[in-house]
Amino acid sequence: MGHKDGDDPAAPLLAVQPDLNLLRTFLAVYRSGSFTAAAGLLGLSQPTVTTQIRNLERTTGRDLFERLPRGATPTPVAHDLAASVSGPLDALAAATGHDPEHLTPTVPVHLAGPAEYLSTCVLPFLAPLIADGLHLRVTTGLADSLLDELRAGRYDLVISTTRPRGRNLLSEPLADEEFALVAAPVWADRVRDRLAAEGPSVLHEVPLVSYAEDLPIVRRYWRHVFGRRLACRATLTIPDLRGVLSAVKAGAGFSVLPTYLCADALATGALVVLHETDDPPINTSYLAQRPGIPYNTYVNRVRDHLLTPGPHTCDPSE
Questions:
Q1: Can you give the pTM of this predicted structure?
Q2: Engineered SS bond to 271: which of 50, 246, 265, 286, CB 3.0-4.6 Å?
Q3: Tell me, what's the pLDDT at 101?
Q4: CB 165 within 8 A of CB 148
Q5: Is 263 in contact with 273 (CB distance < 8 Å)?
């Protein structure tokens, strides 16, 4: 139900005071990403949740959610309403002994982020929580699309390689990734000494293995370390850094990889650093979530665990 003709779209959403129960239901749908999940969290039937959201939409005169086959996407109006009411409702719940932190989790925590980092660092670090009863659903993908899905309520937490912008998401630095220029010994023996003496142009003789055709990681390394633009194209592209690692270890060529991913290969000698630098490129990852207190108690437990220093933070001092 949209606003009526002649209504000002910027008019206050809560000009008519709605029932607090409707706002609580709205916040549960907004945070969980679906009517069905919200019903489980609130101990209501799914039709009751649907009816309450429709009543709130009639009260505000605005559409709050786009109904989808698998969930509900908040409209811009819903984002504004959630930002306005989440703080007061959470404070009221805590004051009256209904703090969401004391609710039994009935749905899994939905976590998303880069496939390589999740598989290599995050999931092993979360293993104790899973053994302790955490139900986890993991999705992999690129930062921009995952953050959009987080705003839409499809995920609880997203690990992003870029800092989220806007007031609808909160984020904290999670990990600093260092990058290294690497190759298998068969290539390192041929070019490493020449690289030190003649500069990076000698690598034009070596096949380049990259994550993507536009070479984002390698181009950044060239600018940061060598102070010049990259002037070669990829021989092999693989949209998974673990595949890049495997190919480079097998002697396919050289690449730039995060040190957390290739640490074991470097330790065993399967890979060799081609160029030592005291100032490697560093990329910060962020842990993002929607504002307010989640209804699933395990969301904050996962968040706090991930923000605890450990091997998943990619900190060389750990």
A1: 0.69
A2: 265
A3: 47
A4: no
A5: no
* 294: amino acid identity, one letter: P
Delineate the domains of the chain, giving CATH numbers in brackets: 20-102 (1.10.10.10), 109-176+283-313 (3.40.190.10), 178-281 (3.40.190.10)
- Give which of 130, 202, 158, 176 is closest to 315, Cα–Cα: 176
Question: CA 186, CA 168: separation in Å to the nearest integer?
Answer: 50
| Tokens linked to 96 | 């009256």
Ranges in the chain, pLDDT < 50: 1-11, 101-106, 316-318
Give residue-wise pLDDT tens across range 156-202. 899 999 999 877 788 999 999 999 999 999 999 999 999 999 999 99
The CA-to-CA distance between both ends of the chain, in Å, stands at: 54
Q: Which of 295, 307, 301, 309 is nearest to 129 (CA)?
A: 301
